Amino acid sequence: MGKLIAVIKREYFERVRSKWFVVATVFGPLMMAVMAVLPAYLATKSSASADVANIVILDASDSELGARVSRTLGAFGRPPEVRRVAPSELAAAESTATRQVVDKTVQGYLVVDLVTKAGERARYAGRNASTLPDVDKIQDAVKTAVLELRFEAAGLDAQKVQALSTLKVKVDAERLTESGRGGGGKGNAALAYAVALLLYMSIVLYGQSILMGVIEEKSQRVAEVVVAAVPADTLLAGKVIGVGAVGLTQQLVWIASAIGLMRFQQPIMASLGLPATPINMPQVTLGTAVAYFCFYILGFVFFTSLFGAVGSMVSSTQDAQQVSTPLTMLIVPSILLLMPVLMAPNGGLARAVSIIPFTAPILMPVRMSLTSVPWYELAASIGLLLLSCAGAMWLAARIYRVGVLMYGKKPSFAEVARWVRFAR
Fold it and tell me: Which of 198, 200, 187 is nearest to 370 (CA)?
C-alpha cells in the first residue's frame, strides 16, 4: 500500500505543479466566461446597421406599400425616402438610383411593385447587399408592410393582428419524480451536455496523458528502475489513480467556476451592457452527485487503464497513435449518440447505450440529468461497468507487466496474447 500511495503522490503532484496544468485549469473558466459573453456581444453587433435606413424605396405598387416599409425601417435611423413611380417609369428610376449608389449618396435602393404587393418578391440592390442583418431587416419590413395591406383589405386592424401574431407564451417545464419535484427545461439539458463533455474530455485527454507518460518512461529507461522497486500492476494502478485525481481536481475547479458564472451571469452581463437570458440552476441531489462521481471514476479507470497498457506496448509516439486509435473509437460513439439520448432519454436506444460499458460512463449521467432512471437500470449499468473495470485492469496489468520492459518493434496481437497468458 505504501508503494501505491507513493506512486499516486508522484503522479498527482508532478502534474498539478506543472505550468501546463495551471494554464489549462485557469483557461477553462476563462473560456466559459467568453462563451457566456460572446454570443450576446455578437448578437448586439449583428443587428442591422444604420445603413439599412439610408436607402431609397422605389414604389411602383400603386399603394402605400413603400410608405409602410419606410415607416418600419425608420426605427434604425431616419425613414428612407420613398419615390412613387409608375410601372412604365421604373427602369429609368432604377438607373437614377443606381447612379446614386455608385456616387455613395445612398446605400442602396429597394423596388416594391405589384408583384411585391401580391406577396411574391421585392428587389434590393446596394453596397450592403451582402450584409445579412441589413437584408434581413429589409425583408422583414417588406413582409410586415404586405401583411398590413392584406389585413386591412380583410377588414382587420393590422396593428392588433401583428401584436397578436408576436405573442409568446412561455412554458416552464418541471420534472416530477418519486422523490418530488425536480428541475427541467434548458437548465437540465445544459447540465447533461456539460456532464458528457467533461467526462469525454477527461477520458481522452488524461488517457492520452497516461499513454504518453508510459512511453516517455520507457524511452528514458526509467521504467526499468521503477519496476525493480515497484510491482508493475501497482505502478499502473498508481498512475491511473494519480492522474484521475488530477483530472478530478481540474474539473472541480471548472465546475465551481461554471456555477459561479451561472449564479452571477445577469449582473456580469448588465455591467457589460449586454442582454442576459436567465438560466435556471438545475437541481442535483446528493444521490445524483454521488452517481456522477461513480460513473466518472469507473469510466476513467476503465479507459485509462487500457491507455496505459497500450503505452507499454510501443516505444514511439507514432506507434502509439496507431495502437490507441481503436480505444479512441470506443469513446467516440458516446458523443455521436449524445443528441439522440438528449432528445429521447427514455427511448429504447438511450436505455441500451446507458448500460453498455463502453458508452455508459458518459450517457448514463446524461440520462440521469434529464429523467428519472429506474434503479434496476442504474444497478445494471454500474454492475456491468464494475465488471468491465475489473477485466480491463486485469488485462492492462498483465500487458503492462511485460510490455513496459519490451523495446524495439511494435508487438503483434499474437505476442500480446502470449503476454496476457504467461504474465505473472
Answer: 187
SS3 state at 256: helix
Model confidence pTM above 0.85: no
Cα 266 from chain centroid (whole Å) = 21
DSSP state of 53: G
DSSP for 347-410, please give it: SHHHHHHTTSTTTHHHHHHHHHHHS---HHHHHHHHHHHHHHHHHHHHHHHHHHHHHTT--SSP
What is the fold of 50-164? Rossmann fold (3.40.50)
Contacts of 81 (CB under 8 A, 6+ apart): 56, 57, 70, 106
Mean per-residue pLDDT of the chain: 79
| CA 272 – CA 249 distance, rounded (Å) | 31
CA 408 to chain CA centroid, Å, is 41
Q: What is the largest CA-CA distance in the chain?
A: 97
Q: By the 8 A CB rule, do 29 and 257 touch?
A: yes
Flag whether pLDDT at 39 surpasses 70: no
β-strand pairing of 180-182 with 175-177: antiparallel
Close Cβ partners of 257 (under 8 Å, ≥ 6 residues apart): 28, 29, 32
The boundaries of every CATH 3.40.50 domain in the chain are 50-164
Which pLDDT tens digit goes with each residue over 146-183?
A: 888 888 877 777 677 666 666 676 666 666 555 555 55
Per-residue pLDDT at 207 exceeds 80 = yes
pLDDT level of residue 193 (50, 70, 90 thresholds): confident
